[in-house]
Structures are given as structure tokens and as C-alpha cells.
């Protein structure tokens, strides 16, 4: 399975995009790559924890500024998985 890096604008299974990244220099296709703790837009059912979601469960072996990078399939703090990505970088492992 190909696990592409997730970037600002890429969505989870609820359709909620990453809105920013905690790192400011590593990009894929011109977009910042998301790392654990990056904010995700509020999404259905618009209750806690879906209104304060951050990316989570990134890959421990690929870090940016010491923070695990996120990829397709990683579950956000609300439990929804990272879904769509137009990234070029594959983080398989």
C-alpha cells in the first residue's frame, strides 16, 4: 500500500482538511507537509473531539523538526483517518 505524505489542504475521511502545519519549511508539491499536532478543520458531527482535531499517529521514522510526519491512513486525534493526498512523497514502512 502506498502511504503518501499529507499536506496542508489534504483531507481526512470526514472531508476535513489540514489547515496549517507545525513546521514551516518542508514541502511536497509546494504545500507544507503536516506533522503530528497540525490543526484540522472542524467537521461533522461538530462535537468534541471533532471541533478541536489535530493530526496524530505519524510515522516515527520520518520526522520533520523532530515531529513525526503524517501520511494517508494515519488517524487524527478524533479518530478519522487521513484520506486524500496529492503528494509525491511516499512514506511506506
From TrEMBL:
Compositionally biased intervals (Polar residues): 10-20
Domain of life per record: Bacteria
Annotated segments matching region Disordered? 1-20
Q: Which organism is it from?
A: Acuticoccus sediminis
Descriptive protein name? Uncharacterized protein
Database matches in InterPro entries:
PAAR_motif (IPR008727)
In this record, what's one Pfam family? Answer: PAAR_motif
Amino acid at each position: 500500500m502506498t502511504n503518501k505524505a499529507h499536506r496542508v489542504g489534504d483531507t481526512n475521511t470526514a472531508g476535513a482538511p489540514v489547515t496549517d502545519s507545525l513546521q514551516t519549511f518542508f514541502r511536497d508539491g509546494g504545500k507544507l507537509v503536516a506533522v503530528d499536532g497540525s490543526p484540522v478543520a472542524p467537521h461533522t458531527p461538530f462535537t468534541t473531539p471533532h471541533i478541536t482535531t489535530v493530526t496524530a499517529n505519524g510515522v516515527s521514522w520520518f520526522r520533520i523538526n523532530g515531529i513525526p510526519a503524517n501520511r494517508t491512513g494515519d488517524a487524527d486525534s478524533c479518530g478519522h483517518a487521513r484520506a486524500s493526498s496529492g503528494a509525491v512523497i511516499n512514506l511506506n514502512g
